[in-house]
Design a protein that fits this description.
heterodimer, A: mainly alpha, two-stranded antiparallel sheet, 4 strands, about 5% strand, globular, B: alpha+beta, 4-stranded antiparallel β-sheet, 1 helix, rod-shaped
Chain lengths: ~375, ~160
């Protein structure tokens, strides 16, 4: 007769084959090379997502999704509920950090061309998850019902309204009517806490299964090097070596998150007033700045098409092409490799140039 | 040059070092888990909202209440029961049944206070006389101020 722990373990093992699962985790390996550090970003994003789920559930205990109560309920959370300010601040900061790590993860995958065969669907599921994360950001932004959020939602949904053919329909669908009202708030709340989490769960499961099935991708340069040196692959066991390193990455993310949430608590702002003028310096969250700033530079009319329509259309097509990268980057040869590298650099520089000036200006202010 | 240490002693030193590191790391992890859980658990307990408003409320108008009838009025966030007896005098009680929190009502036919949920019965002094209620209803002081019927919470003790 062993200890209680052993008894429980044996009980579970008899029913679920725990031992074979552990063996599997021990056999799984992760490649070791000079770019291995990028492997931690996906796990970090997942970790921040889990924090979002947990703090989101906590916020649901007090939040009220109606235009008369939303702002007041968030105010109540921040001023009356014990640690309410911290929970809300962690939720806002973790959301932003999650989108940041997701972007970094996406670009690291892009530049290592990890989307190559057979990982096309891993890329696509990851990109769709990133779109969902942006949807989370957009819908969650409105929920405190403050002035900034109100006008950002007006502008954002208006942009969706510029899409040719289905624009009008899309706008009414998103707003729950012609205007941004309480109906929009209820709708965004539904998207934020039910629709998007449901879709995310399915896609996340698919993404993780695919990562598990194909293992970590090794960059071509590293693979060539390994082949040149006699086919010797350097690897480390997933469990416990990589898992513990992953854990350290999560701990770092947690440290950064805790410091940001405690030292720079997320502001609540002023309650939204649909009949007030939009305040100066209004801007969306940083991850939408590249679109927001670009639209400022497009002339009102190009040939016979409205500037906004063209801009929205261009971003839509660019997004679609980016999503389909694994199917576009298929031709072998140095020329194509350089082209896609250049494209990636262009996109990074474009985002940096359109985002950073406004972001820095608003932080300095 | 130092003397090579005994292999057994070396091993036990390594073991105690390992143990030390395990304890330090382990307690660090436990401490941080506690520091995450405590705010979350504390957050879940809703703040106590102190009883707002004064201990006095205007429960009704002298003209609106006939003899041998009762009405429910709002006393802060809780319901109260105002009764006008047959002799024209007033009584006021908390309308929350002491059994399971239902709202009681005045039964003119019995001249009793009755709780419909579990057939609890109180007399006109608020005493629990039959059925499951374990305690009498809290009674309030009633004053007339002009036409207004003013109900006041009695001071404790």
């Amino acid at each position: 007769m062993g200890s209680l722990g052993q008894v429980i373990r044996r009980w579970l093992d008899e029913r679920f084959g725990l031992e074979s699962l552990l063996q599997f985790a021990k056999k799984k390996t992760v490649p070791v090379h000079r770019h291995s550090v990028w492997y931690y970003l996906g796990g970090m994003t997942l970790f921040l997502f889990v924090i979002q789920v947990l703090t989101g559930i906590l916020l649901l205990l007090y939040y009220r999704p109606s235009p008369n109560e939303a702002f007041e309920s968030v105010q109540y959370i921040m001023t009356h509920v014990k640690f309410g300010w911290l929970i809300r601040s962690v939720h806002s900061w973790a959301g932003n950090l999650m989108i940041l790590t997701a972007f970094l993860h996406m670009f690291s995958v892009y530049f290592m061309r990890a989307y190559r065969k057979p990982r096309e669907l891993t890329w696509i599921s990851g990109m769709l998850l990133l779109f969902l994360a942006l949807g989370f950001g957009f819908s969650g932004y409105l929920l405190p019902w403050n002035t900034l959020a109100y006008f950002a939602t007006k502008v954002g949904t208006e942009m969706a309204g510029q899409v040719p053919l289905i624009g009008k329909w899309l706008l009414v669908f998103l707003r729950g009517g012609e205007e941004v009202t309480g109906a929009t708030l209820t709708r965004f709340f539904g998207f934020h806490v039910a629709v998007l989490p449901g879709l995310t769960t399915i896609l996340l499961a698919l993404h993780l299964v695919l990562v598990q099935k194909f293992g970590m991708s090794v960059p071509e340069s590293v693979e060539r090097q390994w082949t040149a040196t006699g086919g010797q692959r350097r690897e480390m066991p997933f469990f416990p070596n990589f898992a513990l390193r992953d854990l350290m990455g999560w701990y770092i993310a947690l440290g950064v998150l805790g410091a940001l949430a405690a030292l720079m608590p997320w502001e609540l702002g002023v309650k939204a007033d649909p009949f007030a003028s939009a305040p100066a310096g209004i801007r969306p969250e940083w991850y939408f700045l590249f679109a927001f700033e670009t639209l400022k530079f497009i002339p009102a009319k190009i040939w016979f098409i409205d500037g906004e329509v063209l801009g929205v259309l261009a971003f839509g097509i660019a997004g679609l092409l980016w999503l389909l990268i694994p199917f576009l980057d298929r031709k072998p040869g140095e020329r194509w490799r350089v082209f896609f590298l250049g494209l990636g650099v262009f996109v990074v520089v474009f985002i940096a140039v359109t985002t950073l000036p406004t972001l820095i200006a608003s932080l300095v202010k | 040059m130092t003397m090579p240490s005994h292999p057994v002693a070396e091993e036990s030193r390594a073991k105690s070092r390992r143990r030390f590191i395990q304890v330090v790391l382990g307690s660090g992890i436990v401490a941080s888990i506690v520091s995450f859980l405590y705010p979350a658990l504390r957050y879940m307990i809703p703040p106590t909202t102190g009883e707002l408003g004064s201990d006095t409320v205007v429960a009704g108008n002298a003209k609106e209440l006939r003899a041998n009838s009762g009405k429910i009025f709002k006393f802060g966030s809780k319901p109260g029961l105002l009764i006008r007896l047959r002799d024209g005098s007033y009584r006021a009680f908390s309308a929350t049944c002491t059994h399971l929190d239902c709202n009681v009502q005045y039964r003119a036919d019995m001249q009793r206070i009755w709780c419909a949920c579990h057939n609890g019965m109180f007399d006109l002094n608020g005493r629990n006389v039959s059925g499951p209620p374990p305690r009498p209803l809290e009674d309030y002081a009633v004053h007339l101020r002009g036409e207004d019927i003013v109900v006041q919470r009695k001071k404790a003790g």
